[in-house]
Amino acid sequence: MEPRPRTVTMRFPAELARIGAVRRWAKAQLPELGLHLNAPRVEDVQLVMSEIAANAVVHGCDGGRPDEELTAALCLTPTGVLRMSVTDPGPGRPEPRKPGEGATSGRGLMLVAGLVDRFGVDEGPDHKVVWAELDLPGAVRPSPATVFGRQVEPQVVVLCSGTPVRVGRPRSAVGMRLGQQPELDRIPAA
């Protein structure tokens, strides 16, 4: 069975006062998704989530509608792509713009575009999803292998030859067919 993306969502009222809660939620969910990021990347995720959430409130909900709930989501694929998104009911596509000199707003999407690997909008009949993706393959902690229905963490085993190897879930489990042998990682001698 192929590993599935892991997704967490949060519903929040369309109010600018709730953007701080979205930032805190995003940071708290990263370990839950299995991500272990350094501080600058955590701050990038928080900034991206707060910018697209604020855009949803300001532009998707005309500056705020406490009666309208928006959905923030974080989705981590097995290959380490983190998709951050916010769904709102507003029409139109957000476009990065060049703010005038002295402007106090209008730079959010430029910041997002500078931090992420991909950025886009998916439009539905009564909503849109603004999303941004970060490629984080090295930050994904491998999930434990399942042996006879029980989860086991990868471990080091010394074979009769005296060569230690790491066994457990192979690195490239995606696309592996039944009957294929997983590659073992050789551990250098100390």
Characterise the protein shown here:
About 18% of the residues have low confidence. The strands form three sheets. The protein has a five-stranded antiparallel beta sheet with strand order 1-2-3-5-4, covered by helices on one side. It has a three-stranded antiparallel beta sheet with strand order 8-9-10, with no helix packed on it. 21% of the residues are buried. The chain contains three helices and ten strands, in the order βααββαβββββββ. Helices cover 23% and strands 31% of the residues. Helix 1 packs across helix 2 and helix 2 packs antiparallel against helix 3. It is globular, with a radius of gyration of 21 Å. With 190 residues, it is an alpha+beta fold. It has two domains: 134 residues, Heat Shock Protein 90 (2-Layer Sandwich), CATH 3.30.565; 42 residues, no CATH class. The two termini are 36 Å apart.
Q: What would the keywords be for this entry?
A:
10 strands; alpha+beta; 190 residues; Heat Shock Protein 90; globular; 3 helices; five-stranded antiparallel sheet; three-stranded antiparallel sheet
Element string (H = helix, E = strand): EHHEEHEEEEEEE
Low-confidence stretches: 153-187
Number of domains: 2
| Strands, count | 10
* Average residue-wise pLDDT: 77
Order of strands across the main sheet: 1-2-3-5-4
CATH topology descriptor of the largest domain: Heat Shock Protein 90
Q: Radius of gyration from the CA trace?
A: 21 Å
